[in-house]
Design brief:
About 35% of the residues lie in helices and about 30% in strands. The protein has about 190 residues and is an alpha/beta fold. Strand 1, helix 1 (about 10-25) and strand 2 (about 30-35) form a beta-alpha-beta unit. The protein is elongated. The two termini are about 30 Å apart. The mean pLDDT is about 85.
Length: about 190
């Protein structure tokens, strides 16, 4: 199983180092290298990216603001020379935080951590159970019970679905619309698009 990666850094040598490290790890697949967050947005619109290696201190849109702006967040490992951003990095649920200059060993350890999270997420996509009244799905690393009567509609977002509920915030899960559709009662739910 390959993890599709995107490397973002405005410093060419730092970007080259991260890209080189990604290529050395067999389970990582470098899909693109970007010099800015704005450039990375275009890649994310057209490709499935599982893991971002992002610098924080970049012109126009910094790495933290970039990650916060994403509707569908891949796993994120921040790579930066500024230790003062560490707490902010973890507030946006970063998988890890590498302080420049970092060694291949440190990079490899962070990648292994991301791989473990990725595998947990992949396993979670297979875990959907339903009864006549409830749907149980994995969301944010825990099982969530959803009353079928509370579902207003379900929105497909590439390999994620967002379940919009009455009087609650939406629940997002890594799951295909097709897999979810198979678990829902056809007499109550209809796919319209």
């Amino acid at each position: 199983m390959k993890i599709n990666c995107l490397a973002i850094d405005d410093e060419p040598l730092a970007l080259q180092q991260v890209a080189g490290y990604i290529r050395k790890i067999p389970y990582l697949n470098l899909r693109a290298e970007c010099n800015s967050a704005v450039e990375a947005l275009k890649i994310l619109e057209n490709q499935t990216i599982d893991l971002l290696f992002a610098d924080i201190n970049m012109p126009d849109l910094n790495g933290l603001e970039f990650v916060k702006s994403l509707a569908k967040k891949p796993l994120v490992i921040f790579t930066t020379a500024h230790s003062e951003y560490a707490i902010e990095g973890f507030k946006v649920e970063a998988t890890d935080y590498l302080l420049k200059p970092f060694s291949f060993a440190e990079f490899s350890k962070a990648a292994a951590k991301a791989k473990k999270q990725f595998e947990l997420m992949q396993n979670a996509t297979e875990k959907v159970e339903s009864t006549n009244d409830f749907l149980f799905i994995k969301s944010e690393y825990k099982m969530v019970r959803i009353n079928l009567k509370n579902i207003r509609y379900i929105e497909g977002m590439k390999e994620y679905v967002r379940i919009h509920l009455n009087n609650q915030k939406p629940v997002m899960t890594l799951l295909s619309m097709k897999a979810l559709e198979e678990k829902l009662p056809s007499e109550t739910f209809m796919r319209v698009h």
